[in-house]
Design brief:
6-stranded mixed sheet, about 550 residues, globular, alpha/beta, 7-stranded mixed sheet
Length: about 550
């Protein structure tokens, strides 16, 4: 297999099969035609003096986005995937920080850029001037002299679920190496459904590039739609799709039909779906669900294996030295111990940060962010920022982000194991756990619960449920419970705790709480909120509520 993205595309320049289709079915290109479209745009980027420079792309999953990714791979330009959910100065900061010389967008997204100080020219992809410029270069050949494996190909912003998004460097070589194992699972007869956003690594590395490398067909959906999913899959004969975050739960929230399993899907690959959603999706749609672990930054890869526990991530890829370490001491955490119901018996000791101890070769750095680089590579290892634990057999499990640590009454613990327990509560479609300030010191536990369709939250039943859970830590029971219509998510579908932490109990959503930690739950009132504010002020922690 080729060692660069440009090489992968060049290898398909004469391939009349596979290629790209729009989910609406109105347009299709063979891989040879995709390569020709990319070559025309590569010539245009050269003409504009953009070889080696950064080009922002602000668009949904449209064919033009794919052609520009190919053009960058052929010309040496660098694509910056701009997140369309960002607004105002945050959006302008992303463009300026990544030194974009040009931002390509369309009429639907152009208003987001209006009046912003971008430091870059803006052009519209769907206006006649751009189409005419591409046509001038129609018939341009795929260059014989392609950028090398070390050439930067893309800057991919992290999801921003734990702070300001960081731009991750992705070279052509890292992208090609990463898709190799995934591409081995496909052939020219496969049809891959791509509805995750192209500005994120999941869509590129788990769908578009594996499809290119294998000569398969990629069906491009402008944006994920649970209501369109099955119709699209059946129309195009899709055998595979990729996902991130809550995509499976959105599909499962649709009314079940007897014909749901009547579809061509064979398997899907994603991350961060709950074990319950994975099992239910396989039952309902007849599609094997595989979860893996590979951070946008690279450096650590954990792969699933046949017969592993349903809640597990898998084991490190061959040759990788991956451990779970105490982030404060750097000591290795002891293996997890499980009870008869697979409950985690030693979470305080077993949960730590997932760390690659084989050096930092797989991490190519953040763009213009040396502080973040230093944090991630301290001690010459790759610190992922993700929490996890492993069992005696070396199988790894996910436990959240390092930002999801809570400290209650002097005890530190991660949100992930608490969510695993609360997620068993009948009628809960999804649960998020996060820390809110205690008036004295440390945190109190707050949970946001999204009820399943047709379910209502019963505070007495919830209290009884908590009391019956043998693996609920003594400090884990939520002091506050917020009932939400839907959990907030990032643009890539990952759950987002930040707005929940910021709002705490000051929200229009119903909040139940336990004034006495050993008592029952009751609905929070305006008087309760005022009493809490007064307690913070008296304790000198008023700033914690700002």
């Amino acid at each position: 297999m080729a060692e660069t993205v440009g090489g992968l595309l060049a290898d398909r320049a004469d391939d009349p099969g596979g290629g790209l289709r729009t989910a609406g079915g109105d347009r299709a290109w063979s891989w040879a035609e995709v390569a020709a479209e990319a070559a025309a745009r590569a010539a245009l980027l050269d003409e504009l003096g953009l070889a080696g420079r950064h080009v922002g792309v602000l668009a949904d999953n449209v064919p033009e986005f794919v052609f520009l990714l190919g053009a960058a791979a052929l010309s040496g330009a660098v694509v910056v995937g701009v997140n369309p959910t960002r607004r105002g100065e945050e959006l302008a900061r992303d463009v300026r920080h990544t030194d974009c010389a040009l931002v390509l967008t369309d009429t639907a997204h152009a208003p987001l850029l209006a009046a912003l100080d971008l430091g870059a020219e803006v052009r519209l992809l769907d206006e006649p001037a751009w189409t005419a410029a591409v046509e001038r270069h129609r018939g341009a050949p795929v260059p014989a002299d392609l950028p090398g494996a070390d050439a930067l190909w893309a800057l991919l912003f992290t999801s921003g679920s734990t702070g300001a998004p960081k731009a991750v460097r992705m070279s052509q070589g890292r992208a090609a190496r990463t898709v190799g194992p995934a591409a081995a699972g496909f052939g020219p007869g496969d049809v891959l459904y791509c509805s995750m956003p192209l500005f994120h690594g999941n869509a590129l590395l788990a769908c578009l590039l594996p499809g290119l490398a294998a000569g398969a067909t990629v069906v491009l959906k402008e944006r994920f739609s649970a209501s369109d999913f099955l119709d699209d899959v059946r129309r195009h004969g899709c055998t595979y799709f990729n996902y991130v975050g809550r995509a499976l739960s959105y599909l499962l929230a649709r009314p079940e039909e007897p014909s749901d399993a009547d579809n061509p899907l064979v398997w899907c690959l994603g991350s961060e779906a709950s074990p319950r959603d994975r099992a239910e999706f396989r039952r309902r749609f007849g599609c094997y669900v595989t979860e893996g672990y590979s951070a946008s930054e690279g450096g650590v890869v954990i792969q699933p294996f046949r017969g592993m526990p349903p809640e597990a991530l898998g084991r490190p890829a061959a040759g990788m030295d991956v451990a779970v370490l105490d982030p404060d001491t750097g000591d290795e955490c002891p293996p997890a111990r499980f009870g008869p119901g697979r409950e985690l018996l030693n979470p305080t000791a077993a949960v730590g940060e997932i760390v690659g101890r084989g050096g930092i070769a797989g991490f190519e750095g953040y763009y213009a962010n040396p502080e973040a680089d230093a944090e991630r590579t301290r001690g010459g290892w790759t610190w992922t920022g993700d929490l996890g634990f492993r069992d005696e057999d070396g199988t790894f499990y996910f436990a959240g982000r390092t930002a999801d640590w809570l400290r209650v009454d002097g005890e530190n613990f991660a949100a992930g194991p608490v969510e695993a327990v609360l997620g068993r509560f009948p009628g809960a479609a999804a649960v998020l756990v996060y820390g809110v300030p205690d008036p004295r010191t440390g945190d109190q536990v707050m949970a946001a619960i999204e009820p399943a369709p047709g379910a209502t939250f019963d505070p007495d039943a919830f209290a009884a449920f908590l009391a019956a859970q043998p693996d609920l830590g003594t400090k884990w029971a939520p002091r506050f419970v917020r009932v939400v219509e839907a959990l907030p998510t990032t643009a890539t579908g990952k759950v987002d705790r930040r707005p929940l932490r910021a709002e705490r109990w000051e929200t229009i959503d119903p909040v139940w709480w336990r004034p006495d930690r050993d008592g029952g739950y009751r609905r929070m009132t305006e008087g309760d909120v005022a009493d809490l504010d007064r307690a913070f002020a008296e304790a000198g922690r008023a700033g914690m509520l700002a």
